[in-house]
Write a structure and sequence with these properties.
Blueprint (H helix, E strand, L loop, with lengths): L3 E4 L6 E7 L4 E6 L4 E6 L4 E6 L6 E7 L2 E9 L2 E5 L6 E6 L7 E8 L5 E7 L7 E6 L8 E8 L2 E6 L5 E6 L4 E8 L4 E10 L17 E7 L5 E6 L3 E5 L5 E6 L5 E7 L5 E6 L6 H6 L6 E5 L10 E2 L1
Length: about 300
Amino acid sequence: MTWHTVVTAPSELGESPFWHPDEQLLYWVDIAARQIHRANVFMGTHESWAMPSEPGCIAPAKTQGQASGLVIALRSGIYRARQWGGALELLAPARHDPATTRFNDGKADPLGRFWAGTIYEPRDAARAQLFSLDGRGPAPALELKAGNATTANGLAWSPDAGTLYWTDTPRHTIRAWDWDAATNTLRRERVFCQWPGKPEGWQPGMAGYGGRPDGAAVDVQGNYYVAMYEGARLLKLSPTGALLAEFAVPAQCPTMPCFGGDDLKTLYLTSARHGRPARELQIYPQSGCVFSMQVEVPGLPVNFFID
C-alpha cells in the first residue's frame, strides 16, 4: 500500500478525522493549535477555524434529519455549532477540572449520541473517563460510561453495534465491551489487545518499540485499524484482535485513521509533530500532515450526532 500526502500544511497535533458524505470534505482537528480544519482533497482547498480552547474531537451533526454543522468537545464542555464558523452553543459542561483534564478522542455512535473521552494531563493517575451525550431528549446531559484510564483514545464500534472499543494509550491497552445500543449500557469488559510498554531510555529512531495505540476506525468486516503513536505504523486487527496487516507510516506519530470517499475505500490518517525531537522531524519531515491510501475493504461511514 502506498501513502499519499493529501494535506501538506502540517498540524501540530492532528486528530479526530472524519469524511463528511454530504459535503465531500475531510474534517479533522489540531488539538495543540486549537483549530478545526476541513479540506476538499479533490480541489486542494483547505480551511481552518480557530477555537477558544483545545478541540479534543468533533463529529458531524444533524437536526431533524438535515446535516447541520458540528458537535465539538472543547476543554470546558461539549458544544454545538450549527454551521462552519458559527456560534458555539454549550450542550453540556465538562464534569472534570479543566485545569488538569480536557476532552480527547471521541465520535458519535450509530444511534446519534456523542461520546468523548478525557485525558488527565498530569498522567500520574488513571483519572480519565468516557462519557456519552444524548441530544435527542429535552435536556442533553453527560453520562459517565467508563473510567480508570489516563488518556482516552481508540473509540469505535463494531459493524453490528454490539461491541465498543476504547483505548488507554499510556497503558498500551485496547479494551472492549458488549454494548446494548438501545439502552446504552456496557457489560463484559475485557482486554481486546495489549502491547509491551516503551522500553526505558528508548528514543525515536531506535529499534525495540512499536508504539502505543491511539485513534482507530473499523471496516465493514469488523477489522479494527489503529494508529500506533511513536511506532510509525498503522495496524489492522481482526475482530478477535489478531494482527492482519501492518503499514509503515511516513510519520513517527500517526494519530487516527478514518474511511472516506464515495466507496469508503480511502483510508485517511492524521499525524502529529507537536513537541517532537528535531532529529525525528528531520527523518519524518511530513509529520503532522494528513495521509491517505486505498484499501480493498470499505470502512464504516461516519456517524452523525442527532439533536
